Amino acid sequence: MKIATCLVVAAVLAMGAADVSAADLGTAEKTYATVCANCHGRSGQGMASFPKLAGKDADYIAARLKAYRAGEKVGPNTPLMTPHAAKLTDEQIAGLAAYVSTTFK
Ligand code: HEC
Q1: Which of these, 7, 37, 64, 92, has the minimum number of CB atoms within 10 Å of its CB?
Q2: What is the pLDDT along the chain (105 residues), one digit of tens a residue?
Q3: Shortest CA distance to 53 belongs to which of 35, 26, 79, 73?
Q4: Which residues of 26-39 are buried (b: 16+ CB within 10 A; e: fewer)?
Q5: Chain Cα centroid distance, residue 45
Q6: In contact, 65 and 93? CB cutoff 8 Å
Q7: Minimum-distance ligand 1 atom for the alpha carbon of 88
Q8: Residue 36 contacts by C-beta under 8 Å, 6 or more apart in sequence?
């Protein structure tokens, strides 16, 4: 049993979203409301060519934000998104991914 528990904990930690602090979540909430919501909507519902974020899991969101931060081309409107990911730290990305995936269903 103990070994099984350890494996679960290790798997959760490896996903990277488990160590998000309350402070990171609070910062993410503010960033989302002041920056991200302008395009992705107040509840992550998206609009027109701004993709819906609601219902996407934390790993997916974090991976996308890291791709944009790295300057990778993701979709046809990547240039609109890249500047907003460019200066994010790993902590901010983890916070935003956790905030969006747990707040907007
Ligand atoms: C100026 C409008 C704009 C702002 C502000 C913006 N985004 Fe985006 N975002 C976009 C667009 C447009 C895309 C799709 C880009 C593409 O085609 O690759 C996108 C894509 C994404 C994706 C990938 C969605 C998917 O389904 O693959 C995530 C995650 C994301 N944005 C999160 C954020 C977060 C978090 C913030 C705030 C830090 C933010 N965005 C701010 C316009 C914006």
Answers
A1: 7
A2: 566 655 554 444 445 445 799 999 999 999 999 999 999 999 999 999 999 999 999 999 999 999 999 999 999 999 999 999 999 999 999 999 999 999 998
A3: 35
A4: ebbeebbeeebeeb
A5: 14
A6: yes
A7: 38
A8: 53, 84, 96, 100
Tokens 């046809």 belong to residue: 76
50 Cα: distance to centroid of ligand 1 (angstroms): 7
Contact yes or no for 46/40 (Cβ under 8 A): yes
Q: Which ligand 1 atom lies nearest to the CA of residue 97? A: 35
- The predicted structure's pLDDT at residue 1: 54
Do residues 16 and 93 make contact, with C-beta atoms less than 8 angstroms apart? no
What pLDDT shows up at residue 105?
87
Taking phi first (over 0 means left), then psi (-120 to 50 degrees means alpha), and beta for anything else, what does residue 41 get? Answer: left
